[in-house]
Amino acid sequence: MLTYFDSRIMTSHQVENIELFYGLYIIVWLFTSSRLQEDPPAGVSGAPTDNNIMIWNAVIFGPHDTPFEDGTFKLTLEFTEEYPNKPPTVRFVSKMFHPNVYADGSICLDILQNRWSPTYDVSAILTSIQSLLDEPNPNSPANSLAAQLYQENRREYEKRVATIVEQSWLNFNDDEEKEPKKDS
């Protein structure tokens, strides 16, 4: 028996293999989600949205003894069907001033690009981003002003980061209000 699937004609055996793959895929998702919920790394949390397992909301708390200390930063992770073979798209929702964060919130981090490995889970991604906050790579800047200040005028850099940290407290709940509501 032949079935039309993914723009090709496939045998029912091939379709069964694909269904098995997606079943395993869901199991991986559930494991990742439950592991993050039951034993979260310090300073990070995340979970799938209520209506879409492929979109996660996350929070990273600024690491202790860093300019980002006491900050509460929201992120989104958007997965595709190619996960875990391809990394999710990760963006800060909270405003960020950092050498490796673009204006749109996307993050320049090697494990989200050319050094991605299918072994990385959400916990690894979030803890890597949390580490990046204190250990930026100014040689690969996404924000050239932040990179320049980080290297040449650390006091001004830290002053701008302090402003972002304060905004993270004030705007933490406002981010939900800014998101457009869908008509029912």
From TrEMBL:
PROSITE patterns: UBC_1, UBC_2. InterPro entries: Ub_conjugating_enzyme (IPR050113), UBC (IPR000608), UBQ-conjugating_AS (IPR023313), UBQ-conjugating_enzyme/RWD (IPR016135). The keyword Transferase applies. The active site is at 108 (glycyl thioester intermediate). It is an enzyme of class 2 (transferase). One of its GO terms (molecular function) is ubiquitin conjugating enzyme activity. It comes from the Eukaryota. Keywords: ATP-binding, Nucleotide-binding, Transferase, Ubl conjugation pathway. The keyword Nucleotide-binding applies. Residues 24-170 form the UBC core domain. GO terms for biological process: DNA repair. Pfam families: UQ_con (PF00179). Its EC number is 2.3.2.23. Belongs to the ubiquitin-conjugating enzyme family. This is E2 ubiquitin-conjugating enzyme. It comes from Argiope bruennichi (Wasp spider).
